Amino acid sequence: MVTCYLRYVIDPYKTKEFEEYARMWIPLVNQFGGQHHGYFLPSEGASDIALALFSFPSLAAYEAYRNNAKDDPACIRAVQFAEETRCFLSYERSFFRPVLEGNE
């Protein structure tokens, strides 16, 4: 299993738009074989950082999702929404291998 960690720098005046963007992606990741663990919006502390976590069975499964998402109408709409609203300024993507109980 591989977990993708996304760290966004968001526009704090467009948190509502970013939340709408996030809600678009959760079912899409799940539809393409991933398991979305949610988006995490600012609460205390920095008001311009948001996070997202989702997992796929393997890096190959994640790459298949990325390739399939390029042509999916709902994914295209989500990307266009982000571009139109400019609800985030940048993001970083990292991958992790989780250590879970009973997972060797």
Automatic annotation (TrEMBL):
Xref: Gene3D superfamilies: 3.30.70.100
Signal sequence extent: none
InterPro entries, A to Z: Dimeric_a/b-barrel, NIPSNAP
Pfam families: NIPSNAP (PF07978)
Superkingdom to which the source organism belongs: Bacteria
Boundaries of every NIPSNAP domain copy: 7-99
Annotated protein name in UniProt: NIPSNAP domain-containing protein
Organism from which the protein derives: Photobacterium galatheae
